Amino acid sequence: MREYMQKGGALEELIENMSMQLRILGQGVLLKQNVLWVTYGNRTFPKKGAPVDFLGVVKGIPVAIECKETVSDRIQFSETHFSSKEKAFLSDFEKAGGKAFIVFAFWKSNGLYIVKHADFEEYNKQSITDKACKMLGKKLNMNVNEFVEFVKSA
Predict the structure, then answer these.
(1) What is the widest separation between alpha-carbon atoms in the chain?
(2) Rounded Cα gap, residues 95 and 64, in angstroms
(3) What sign for the dihedral angle of Cα 50, 56, 62, 68?
(4) What is the pTM of this model?
(5) pLDDT greater than 70 at residue 130
(6) What is the DSSP string of 42-54?
């Protein structure tokens, strides 16, 4: 069995870069949450760690962000790709007064979207496409000021 800290992804790196800009500008702090992963056979499983990718505060607003990315046309919502633990945490975070978001990246079409968790909860399909994200959320262009305004207005 091999253990390592993070599966990682291009989307999470983009969010970390935006987080750095938020911090420099004094607009907020987003911290990447570490997960301990275990590889057994040909599969990788989360052993323990945070149920979402980023936690922080933006302009005094508690924020939780879960990242989902794909190189295909759609993102599947199977238990292994978007677990009930992640969904429950996002719901609980909102109930506790924070704002929860999912950031979707469709690399094939260069689509990057931020969706309020509350809006996503009403979406009851087994997968999501670039087009559906466009209708549910907002195109994310990694502009820090636009991101801050979206969080404040959500």
Answers:
(1) 45
(2) 12
(3) negative
(4) 0.84
(5) yes
(6) TEEEEEEE-SSSE
